[in-house]
Design goal:
The protein has 141 residues and is mainly alpha-helical. The chain has one domain. The chain is 76% helix and 0% strand. The protein is built from four helices and no strands. The longest helix is centred in the first third of the chain and has 34 residues. The N and C termini lie close together (10 Å).
Length: 141
């Protein structure tokens, strides 16, 4: 159990590194779009596809070191990012009712990655199909 928890911690730190790199780049793009008078929710939505592509490549290779086919990994990844997209829109729509767009996006940046990572672990991203079924706590690999 301790090794599983330690491995999960390392995996989450790698996930954070991939996410921080992608997020920093796309946060600058988000701010530029808002500065260009694009609605903040639309700007966040526009940043999502390139963010998904960067994240898929980085997490598949670096975070999870997947040896699976894209055919196996991509649907699982897209499910996780679909959950993240819903989270993004919900967090922003809610946070924008009482804070500026730049701060609302920072709240989103804190919440949505946890939703995505949890979903990736639940759907078995990066694991062979035979071991990808959800587990009680996701620490068994």
């Amino acid at each position: 159990m301790k090794k599983g928890l330690f491995d999960e911690g390392l995996r989450f730190m790698r996930y954070g590194a991939v996410g921080a790199t992608s997020t920093a780049l796309l946060y600058v793009v988000f701010l530029a779009l808002v500065e260009a008078s694009i609605d903040p929710v639309v700007a966040a939505g526009a940043c999502y596809p390139p963010g998904v592509a960067l994240s898929y490549l980085g997490n598949r290779r670096f975070t999870f070191a997947s040896q699976q086919t894209h055919r196996s990994d991509l649907p699982r990844f897209l499910i996780a990012y679909g959950a993240g997209f819903i989270s993004t829109l919900g967090v922003l729509a809610t946070a924008l009712t009482w804070m500026a767009p730049a701060l609302a996006q920072l709240v989103n940046i804190a919440v949505t990655p946890i939703v995505i990572y949890s979903t990736m672990r639940l759907v078995g991203f990066g694991r062979p199909p035979s071991t990808a079924e959800p587990t009680c706590h996701g620490l068994d690999d």
